[in-house]
């Protein structure tokens, strides 16, 4: 009887471990070592990555996004295209459509779950394009192109985010996050050139809203800082701008990605150059942040990072050192504990 109970217990334990396996897709810059989008699994209970395998051979899929039902994946390519894929039972990808991003250097794609639209940001061309998504996951040609370029200056669109009937786009070349609102004719209209005014040339790159949309955190690539703003009845109010670097750092640095912890008590930003993740404690009432630590990424050039679905692990894509570093998050104080790293060819985007 004890043996049967032991076997049953082991079986249940193994089933629980299997249930914790979640797919992870890896976007790359293709070269002699990297061939496209890779996939693996991540165990949210043990923190272990599975074998890394090629999901599809495709050129420079540098940023990835899921469809709301997670049956399809979308990628932006720096040669000015956007692709859609069907996820097969073995986690391989089948190419469905490939359409123009309506600009050079597509670097980011965001999906709107309610309106079935994608927004692609073109860093090289400076434009943002709205692409309708069909019921079968395929992409249609752009229905609208947002162009904020000046005759003598490129806007450098770097990231976009949908919130309800609003669209926000970070323009590094304009030093602004702009706000657009969806109109009755199903197009987006510019309603605010810059949700907050900033000094100098900080270069906003990526940004995160809190779940309730009341606070936004903008990571500035050129200034090495994070700008905090709060939504008001009249728009957004600048709260503060905080450095991602210690005062004694004097090397070259370029910030990249930014994420909130699952409970929104902590904020994380990546430093390329110092090669760290900056950890901030967040005041959930007034939105202010305080940097508490910078942790080495155990690699070079952390272009992108992500937090797993459980909220207990943080994974970093180190572009120039060809590895993914895995950290355990201390959910009490926000600190990161390095666990291990795995070799991966030119990882630049991690998608759970």
Automatic annotation (TrEMBL):
This is Lactonase family protein. One of its GO terms (molecular function) is 6-phosphogluconolactonase activity. Residues 1-19 form the signal peptide. Pfam families: Lactonase. It comes from the Bacteria. Keywords: Carbohydrate metabolism, Glucose metabolism, Signal. One of its GO terms (cellular component) is cytosol. Belongs to the cycloisomerase 2 family. InterPro entries: Cycloisomerase_2 (IPR050282), Haem_d1_sf (IPR011048), Lactonase_7-beta_prop (IPR019405), WD40/YVTN_repeat-like_dom_sf (IPR015943). The keyword Signal applies. GO terms for biological process: glucose metabolic process.
């Amino acid at each position: 009887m004890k043996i049967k109970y032991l076997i049953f217990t082991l079986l249940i334990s193994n089933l629980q471990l299997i249930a914790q396996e979640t797919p992870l897709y890896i976007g790359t810059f293709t070269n002699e070592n990297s061939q496209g989008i890779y996939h693996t699994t991540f165990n949210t209970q043990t923190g272990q990555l599975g074998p890394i395998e090629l999901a599809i051979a495709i050129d420079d899929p540098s940023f990835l996004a899921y469809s709301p039902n997670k049956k399809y994946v979308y990628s932006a390519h720096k040669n000015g295209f956007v692709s859609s894929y069907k996820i097969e039972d073995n986690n391989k990808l089948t190419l469905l459509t490939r359409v123009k991003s309506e600009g050079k250097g597509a670097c980011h794609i965001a999906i709107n779950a309610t309106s079935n639209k994608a927004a692609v940001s073109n860093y090289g061309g400076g434009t943002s394009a709205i692409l309708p998504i069909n019921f079968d996951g395929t992409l249609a040609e752009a229905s609208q192109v947002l162009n904020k370029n000046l005759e003598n200056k490129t806007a450098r669109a770097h990231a976009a985010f949908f919130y309800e009937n609003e669209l926000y786009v970070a323009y590094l070349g304009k030093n602004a996050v702009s706000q657009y609102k969806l109109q009755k004719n199903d197009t987006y209209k510019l309603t605010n050139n810059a949700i907050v005014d900033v000094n100098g040339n900080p270069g906003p790159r990526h940004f995160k809203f809190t779940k309730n949309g009341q606070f936004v955190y903008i990571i500035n690539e050129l200034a090495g800082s994070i700008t905090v703003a709060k939504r008001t009845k009249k728009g957004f109010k600048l709260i503060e701008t905080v450095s991602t670097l210690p005062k004694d750092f004097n090397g070259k640095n370029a910030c990249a990605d930014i994420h909130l912890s699952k409970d929104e008590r902590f904020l994380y930003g990546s430093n390329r150059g110092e090669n760290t993740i900056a950890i901030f404690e967040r005041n959930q009432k007034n939105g202010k942040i305080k940097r508490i630590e910078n942790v080495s990424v155990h690699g070079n050039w952390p272009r992108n990072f992500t937090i797993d679905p459980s909220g207990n692990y943080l994974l970093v894509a180190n572009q120039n050192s060809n590895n993914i570093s895995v950290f355990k998050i201390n959910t009490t104080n926000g600190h990161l504990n390095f666990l291990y790293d795995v070799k991966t060819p030119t990882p630049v985007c991690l998608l759970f």
